[in-house]
C-alpha cells in the first residue's frame, strides 16, 4: 500500500520524520539524560573497552557506517574503520577479541555482510548488528544488536533505513562518549535535546520538495553529476550520487569536496551540474572556495545550505535550504533533498523508481 503516494520510494522519503521518531522512541529521553539501548546492555563492557570499532556493510548501509566513523571518533575518541564487507571478508584482516564489530544492514540478509560477520566472529570479536528487518539472518548471527525500527522499506533505493541507521549509530556514539568520559555531561545533554528535535527538522527539510522538483526539471537530461561534501557531509555526497545512479541511470560520483582538485575538476564545464552540501559548519568556508572554483569553470552549482545562508546563495545557481542543527546531525537533514532530487529526476526520465533495472532489494549472493 503506497498510502496515496505514486511510488514506495516517495512514501518512504516522506515517512522519515516518523521513522526517525520511531527509532528514537523509548531510547532517547533528553529530560532525564537517559539513552537506553536495550541491545547494548549485556555487551556494555565490551563496548566501553573496545580498542577499535570496525564497521562493515555494503551500499547505503556502508555510507551510514562512514557517518558513524565521524561520530564515534568525535564523541567517543575510539579509532574506527569502515569496511566494505565484500573486501573485508577476503582480505585476511587483522581482528582480535578487543575489536567491536558493527554490521549494518537494512535487510539483514546481505551475503557479503553475513560472511564478514562470520569471519570476525571466528576471530573472537564482539559483533553488534544494526538491522531493520526483524528476525532476519544478521540479527540471528550477531551477539547483540539494535533494530532501526524504520518499518518495511519496499523501494529498492534505501532512504528511511539510512536515516534510521544513522539515528541508532548516533545514539550509540553519544552513549559511548558519555560513558568513556570523552563527551562532557553538559554537551551530552545538549546533544540529546538536539537529536530529539531532528524529526521536526526533517519535516521542514521535506518542504523543499517543490523547489527540488523544479531543479530536477532543469537537470533531468544531464549525463553526469558530481556530488561534493566535507566532514559529516562527505558520506552524504556519496549517498546522493548512489541514489541518482541507481534509479535514474545518470552517471554520478560523490567525492570529498577537497579531493576535487586532485582529478574531478577536469570534468567541469558548463554541462556539468555539481551538487554541493554547503551547510554552515566547520568546513563551510572551504566548501565555499570549492564552489568558487566550479563557478570559475562555468559549472552549474546546486547547493544544499543552511536556512538564511547568504554567501553560497550569491554564488550558486540554485540553493536548497535546510534547518540548522549540530554539525554531527546534518546528514539526517542534508540527505533529504538529495533523495528527493534523485526521485524526481528518475520519474521525469520515465524510470522504474521502485524497481530499478539489474537491482534487487537484498543482495543474497556475493
Ligand atoms: O540490506 P542492506 O542494507 O545490507 O543492503 C546493502 C545494499 O545492498 C543497499 O544499501 C543498496 O546499496 C541499496 N540499493 C542502496 O539504495
From TrEMBL:
Residues 43-182, 215-356 form the SIS domain. It is an enzyme of class 2 (transferase). It comes from the Bacteria. The keyword Cytoplasm applies. One of its GO terms (biological process) is carbohydrate metabolic process. Its EC number is 2.6.1.16. It is found in: Cytoplasm. It catalyses: D-fructose 6-phosphate + L-glutamine = D-glucosamine 6-phosphate + L-glutamate. Keywords: Aminotransferase, Cytoplasm, Glutamine amidotransferase, Repeat, Transferase. Homodimer. Catalyzes the first step in hexosamine metabolism, converting fructose-6P into glucosamine-6P using glutamine as a nitrogen source. This is Glutamine--fructose-6-phosphate aminotransferase [isomerizing]. The gene is glmS. The chain holds residues 248 to 613 of 613 of the full protein.
Amino acid at each position: 500500500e503506497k498510502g496515496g503516494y505514486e511510488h514506495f520510494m516517495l512514501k518512504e522519503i516522506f515517512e522519515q520524520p516518523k521513522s526517525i521518531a520511531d527509532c528514537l522512541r523509548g531510547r532517547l529521553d533528553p529530560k532525564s539524560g537517559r539513552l537506553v539501548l536495550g541491545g547494548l546492555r549485556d555487551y556494555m563492557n565490551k563496548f566501553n573497552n573496545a580498542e577499535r570499532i570496525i564497521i562493515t556493510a555494503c551500499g547505503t548501509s556502508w555510507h551510514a557506517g562512514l557517518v558513524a566513523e565521524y561520530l564515534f571518533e568525535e564523541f567517543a575518541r575510539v579509532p574506527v574503520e569502515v569496511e566494505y564487507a565484500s573486501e573485508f571478508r577476503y582480505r585476511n584482516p587483522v581482528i582480535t577479541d578487543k575489536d567491536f564489530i558493527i554490521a549494518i544492514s537494512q535487510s539483514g540478509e546481505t551475503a557479503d555482510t553475513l560472511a564478514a560477520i562470520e569471519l570476525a566472529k571466528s576471530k573472537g570479536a564482539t559483533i553488534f548488528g544494526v538491522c531493520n528487518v526483524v528476525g532476519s539472518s544478521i540479527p540471528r548471527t550477531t551477539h547483540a544488536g539494535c533494530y532501526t525500527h524504520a518499518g518495511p522499506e519496499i523501494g529498492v533505493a534505501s532512504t528511511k533505513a539510512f536515516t534510521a541507521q544513522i539515528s541508532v549509530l548516533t545514539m550509540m556514539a553519544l552513549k559511548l562518549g558519555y560513558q568513556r568520559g570523552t563527551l562532557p555531561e553538559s554537551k551530552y545533554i545538549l546533544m540529546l535535546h538536539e537529536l530529539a528535535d531532528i524529526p521536526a527538522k526533517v519535516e521542514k527539510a521535506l518542504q523543499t520538495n517543490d523547489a527540488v522538483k523544479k531543479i530536477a526539471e532543469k537537470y533531468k537530461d544531464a549525463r553526469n553529476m558530481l556530488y561534493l561534501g566535507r566532514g559529516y557531509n562527505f558520506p552524504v555526497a556519496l549517498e546522493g550520487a548512489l541514489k541518482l545512479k541507481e534509479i535514474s541511470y545518470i552517471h554520478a560520483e560523490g567525492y570529498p569536496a577537497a579531493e576535487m582538485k586532485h582529478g574531478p575538476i577536469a570534468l567541469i564545464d558548463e554541462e556539468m551540474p555539481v551538487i554541493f552540501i554547503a551547510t554552515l559548519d566547520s568546513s563551510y568556508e572551504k566548501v565555499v572556495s570549492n564552489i568558487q572554483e566550479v563557478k570559475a569553470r562555468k559549472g552549474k552549482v546546486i547547493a544544499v545550505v543552511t536556512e538564511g545562508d547568504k554567501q553560497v546563495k550569491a554564488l550558486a545557481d540554485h540553493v536548497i535550504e535546510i534547518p540548522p542543527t549540530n554539525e554531527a546531525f546534518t546528514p539526517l537533514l542534508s540527505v533529504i533533498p538529495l533523495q528527493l532530487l534523485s526521485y524526481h529526476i528518475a520519474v521525469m526520465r520515465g524510470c522504474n523508481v521502485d524497481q530499478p533495472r539489474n537491482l534487487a532489494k537484498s543482495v543474497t549472493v556475493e
